């Protein structure tokens, strides 16, 4: 951690609006007095909570100055080696994809729209291999938990604590216009992370969401910086990369979604810039792929340090509902990915990682709806296989954009992806009765291919239904 | 006739049974389909009840023919006063001036939804003066747009910001002696900062039905389109391309969306986007402004259009939003395109037309007091209709289009009312002695015949509206616009029916006795069951026009599913 000296803290303090507000307040407090002693100020500050505010402000500055290191090594050695294996696997897939595109160039008539390096099913399948390996070494005698797909010894939060954490969502009340306006003002004037998080946890009015996100990511005064950065990346896009082709193919699914087809070009532009952005490697919270470097130029990882995967466009799409400016959309996407979504693709024991989330879901479903859990197991369509798509892609494409943004709010509000666990559990509970009647995988697929309407609040309610 | 009406209303209860109705049209798209779906007969000659004619027919034939009292036609005689670009502007300008003269400045100021416009060649000198004045004031950056008056679909449109380009245009006209009748143009200040979505420009197509100009009676359709333009102006080569920078070149990957989704959003999706981006209040205001814009443009020509009880007109308004969400009127179409490019589009337009025909009411089954028929909401009858103050809606434009449920509801209440009327005329033969009595009865009947509708409206207020309000609050509460509207579906569709039935026991009896059902059975249930049975029996037979075309299966599936949901 980088240490700040007092001078620097003062400098940073002065750049905060709240600091000047506090100063003004103190001045007002001593309006008519001629001489003001340090003690007087101290007393005054204590009496009207100014001191608390100052402490908060300073700790906020210190926290901000601390740069988050990218997680490279996991505390569990086994996962580190797995990550290397995963990366090797992806390189192999890349080879295949590369070969396919080459073939396609020769044969123009047959364009395969399913070209991608990996998708969520590949990822889950890879995670599944852990079980056998570990049970060989650690759990030789433990057979009783074998019903779960994933059963790895990593530190997990108790599922009850997650359920408790989000229980307040059930009690969401309707807010009056007055209160909504109050929240609006609050968003405009607030700068502290904690306060912004609190707002995001409870309620973000439509129309203010973009500002809240920008403030939370500290982009609110950086419009020109963002614009320049984006323009620079756009220039770089003129040099074609192999990955561009994959991204273009990836956009097809988005182009078939009523809500997002309008944004297809913007999404593609964002992604092309994204794989060329050098700053991602240092900003991303966890390293997604690690290990070998190959020499052949075409077969290297993109500059971001990880492969673009199938449906990466989905993460950008809902953000198009926040701003009409593409550089803002890009900045938000980048931040969301580097802070949160990267964990959905990471082989790690972190509490946000796909591994932990999956295990949480299995845990909750198997304890709270054991019947469903076993039924799914018997018909050969495991719980996780059912919801992995929704989990990895944050329900994007399954819910209307405003609902997705509510999920985003919750992610920011708690600085965590655990809300997805709640929603996945709710999702399963919602279709529980139908799923219990399903006799095979086809039945299950049929249930989900039907027209359905999932909503945030509804899924939360289902999650807590016994 | 909408399938629900056919299902619920008994043949002998019709004043004018649908199988007796004849239509004539030269169109071969959704219009023909919608007419056929009502099970009307197509005819060639002059013996028709409704004619969906082309505009030209009106000009050529209508002045020389005498229409029978029951005949209906889809244009007003001089509709061009509103639908020709130059005349529309002229009429709007004149109406605005009149308002100013009458001292109604506030209302006059509301007529600010059309850009500064001049007629060419007649107003060329004034335009040049204005152009030079603006150039001197440094406003020269806003370009102007030239539109030929007679053409549509963007033909002949070009944009310029130098007088030179227009003098060139003038010269070619002069040079071309054959075209002495210099083609008339209007020149309009270009709306320079349109709202862009996904980097694309769009305009909205909204449908307004006018059934009468005296009193001005307007119905607004809940669904319309936002049409994203990338090819619209592409064909014209314009020297100053910066205007068109907004039209991002089409990527090769985006080729397929035109086929599948038609490059369109429906208004509901647009509203969802705008609400997420700009917040509820601003969007509510915008949509209200759009509704008022449409009413105002018709008010401007109300005294000019020759009112005719034979005529009705479905207008397609083209509206553009600028970056501040202010709506601008681009033009009004008298015969909006009824050709569809996707199955969903097809269903939507057929539904729209079906609702138009229901409102025209050739079968004479409605009371005329209905506030909502299918996807149409009454927005003006003499004066603009204001929604209750406590309503969170300012307009139904862009709100959930519950036409299926609404039609079902209205068909049921109509069936009950007609059954009662029929029974009373049957059981009480005309008797001189009791004529007065009968008149009185009829009066009562009329008031009760409004009953279902008023009750329905009442329910709309109590139950229908309430959930809407709740849902809106809920939207506020959870910030999820889609949530409310869909929840609404469930609440609206069941409660009003049961209540309507509960509130009308005598009518149920009437209906029951008609259907010869043992009255000792539980009445509420039997009616519902009976109706359900009827619906289920007819469900498939009513929706079959595309059976053979597999590509329509999606839509079909959807519509069937919707009905099933209703049934549940």
From TrEMBL, chain A:
Residues 313-436 form the Rab-GAP TBC domain. InterPro entries: Rab-GAP-TBC_dom, TBC1D19. This is Rab-GAP TBC domain-containing protein. It comes from Paramecium pentaurelia. The lineage of its organism: Eukaryota, Sar, Alveolata, Ciliophora, Intramacronucleata.
Automatic annotation (TrEMBL), chain B:
One of its GO terms (cellular component) is ciliary basal body. Residues 422-464 are annotated as: Disordered. Pfam families: TTL (PF03133). InterPro entries: TTL/TTLL_fam. PROSITE patterns: TTL. Belongs to the tubulin--tyrosine ligase family. This is Tubulin--tyrosine ligase-like protein 9.
């Amino acid at each position: 951690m980088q240490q700040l000296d007092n001078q620097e803290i003062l400098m940073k303090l002065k750049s905060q609006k709240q600091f000047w507000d506090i100063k003004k307040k103190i001045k007002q407090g001593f309006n008519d007095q001629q001489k003001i002693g340090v003690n007087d100020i101290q007393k005054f500050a204590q009496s009207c909570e100014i001191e608390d505010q100052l402490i908060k402000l300073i700790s906020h500055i210190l926290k901000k100055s601390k740069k988050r290191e990218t997680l490279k090594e996991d505390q569990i050695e086994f996962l580190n080696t797995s990550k290397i294996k995963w990366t090797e696997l992806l390189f192999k897939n890349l080879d295949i994809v590369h070969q396919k595109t080459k073939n396609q160039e020769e044969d123009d008539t047959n364009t395969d729209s399913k070209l991608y390096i990996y998708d969520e099913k590949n990822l889950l399948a890879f995670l599944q291999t852990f079980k056998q390996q570990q049970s060989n070494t650690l759990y030789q005698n433990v057979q009783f938990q074998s019903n779960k797909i994933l059963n790895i010894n990593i530190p997990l939060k108790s599922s009850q604590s997650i359920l408790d954490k989000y229980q307040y969502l059930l009690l969401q009340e309707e807010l009056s216009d007055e209160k909504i306006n109050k929240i609006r003002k609050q968003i405009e004037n607030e700068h502290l992370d904690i306060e912004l998080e609190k707002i995001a946890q409870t309620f973000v009015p439509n129309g203010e969401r973009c500002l809240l996100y920008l403030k939370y990511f500290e982009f609110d005064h950086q419009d020109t910086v963002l614009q320049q950065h984006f323009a620079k990346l756009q220039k770089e896009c003129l040099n074609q990369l192999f990955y561009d082709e994959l991204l273009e193919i990836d956009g097809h699914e988005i182009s078939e979604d009523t809500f997002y087809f309008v944004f297809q070009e913007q999404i593609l532009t964002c992604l092309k810039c994204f794989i060329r952005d050098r700053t991602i490697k240092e900003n991303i919270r966890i390293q997604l792929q690690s290990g070998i470097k190959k020499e052949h130029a075409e077969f290297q990882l993109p500059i971001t340090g990880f492969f673009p995967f199938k449906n990466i466009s989905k993460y950008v799409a809902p953000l198009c509902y926040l701003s009409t400016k593409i550089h803002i959309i890009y900045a938000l996407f980048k931040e969301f990915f580097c802070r949160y979504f990267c964990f959905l693709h990471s082989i790690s024991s972190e509490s946000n990682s796909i591994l932990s989330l999956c295990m949480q879901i299995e845990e909750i479903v198997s304890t709270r709806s054991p019947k469903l859990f076993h039924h799914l197991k018997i018909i050969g369509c495991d719980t996780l296989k059912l919801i992995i798509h929704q989990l990895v892609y944050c329900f994007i494409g399954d819910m209307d954009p405003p609902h997705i943004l509510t999920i985003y709010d919750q992610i920011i509000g708690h600085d965590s992806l655990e809300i997805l666990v709640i929603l996945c559990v709710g999702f399963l509970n919602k279709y529980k009765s139908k799923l219990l009647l399903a006799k095979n995988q086809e039945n299950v697929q049929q249930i989900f291919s039907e027209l359905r309407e999932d909503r945030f609040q509804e899924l939360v309610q289902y999650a807590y239904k016994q | 006739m909408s399938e629900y009406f056919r299902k619920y209303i008994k043949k002998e209860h019709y004043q004018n049974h649908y199988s007796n109705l004849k239509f004539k049209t030269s169109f071969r798209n959704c219009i023909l389909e919608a007419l056929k779906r009502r099970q009307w007969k197509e005819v060639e000659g002059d013996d028709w009840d409704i004619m969906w004619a082309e505009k030209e027919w009106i000009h050529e034939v209508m002045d020389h023919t005498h229409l029978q009292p029951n005949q209906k036609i889809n244009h007003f005689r001089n509709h061009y006063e509103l639908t020709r670009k130059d005349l529309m502007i002229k009429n709007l300008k004149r109406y605005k001036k009149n308002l100013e003269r009458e001292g109604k400045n506030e209302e006059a100021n509301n007529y600010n939804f059309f850009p500064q416009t001049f007629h060419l060649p007649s107003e060329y000198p004034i335009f040049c003066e204005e152009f030079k004045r603006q150039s001197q004031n440094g406003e020269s950056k806003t370009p102007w747009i030239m539109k030929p008056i007679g053409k549509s679909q963007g033909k002949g449109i070009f944009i310029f910001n130098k007088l030179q380009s227009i003098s060139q245009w003038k010269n070619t006209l002069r040079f071309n002696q054959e075209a002495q009748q210099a083609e008339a143009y209007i020149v309009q200040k270009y709306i320079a900062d349109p709202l862009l979505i996904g980097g694309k420009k769009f305009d909205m197509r909204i449908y307004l039905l006018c059934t009468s100009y005296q009193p001005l009676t307007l119905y607004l359709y809940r669904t319309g389109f936002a049409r994203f333009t990338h090819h619209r102006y592409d064909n014209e080569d314009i020297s100053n391309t910066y205007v068109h920078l907004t039209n991002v070149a089409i990527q090769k990957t985006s080729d397929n969306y035109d086929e599948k989704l038609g490059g369109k959003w429906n208004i509901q999706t647009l509203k969802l986007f705008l609400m997420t981006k700009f917040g509820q209040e601003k969007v509510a205001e915008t949509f209200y402004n759009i509704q008022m814009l449409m009413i105002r443009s018709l008010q401007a020509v109300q005294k000019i259009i020759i009112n005719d009880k034979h005529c009705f007109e479905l207008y397609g308004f083209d509206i553009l939003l600028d970056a501040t969400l202010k709506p601008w009127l681009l033009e009004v179409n008298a015969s909006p395109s009824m050709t569809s490019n996707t199955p969903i589009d097809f269903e939507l337009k057929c539904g729209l037309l079906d609702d138009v025909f229901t409102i025209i009411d050739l079968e004479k089954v409605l009371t005329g007091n209905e506030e909502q028929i299918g996807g149409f909401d009454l927005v003006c009858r003499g004066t603009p209709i204001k929604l209750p103050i406590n309503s969170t809606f300012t307009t139904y434009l862009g709100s959930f289009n519950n036409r299926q449920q609404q039609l079902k509801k209205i068909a049921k209440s109509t069936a009950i009312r007609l059954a009662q009327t029929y029974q009373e005329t049957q059981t009480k033969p005309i008797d001189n002695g009791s004529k007065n009595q009968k008149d009185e009865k009829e009066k009562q009947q009329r008031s009760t015949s409004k009953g279902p509708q008023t009750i329905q409206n009442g329910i709309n207020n109590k139950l229908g509206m309430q959930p809407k309000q709740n849902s809106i609050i809920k939207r506020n509460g959870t910030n999820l616009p889609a949530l409310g509207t869909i929840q609404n579906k469930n609440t609206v569709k069941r409660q009003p029916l049961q209540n309507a039935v509960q509130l009308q026991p005598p009518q149920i009896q009437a209906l029951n006795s008609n259907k010869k059902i043992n009255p000792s059975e539980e009445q509420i249930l039997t009616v519902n069951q009976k109706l359900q049975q009827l619906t289920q029996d007819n469900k498939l037979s009513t929706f079959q026009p595309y059976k053979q075309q597999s590509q329509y299966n999606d839509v079909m599936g959807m519509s069937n599913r919707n009905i099933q949901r209703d049934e549940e």
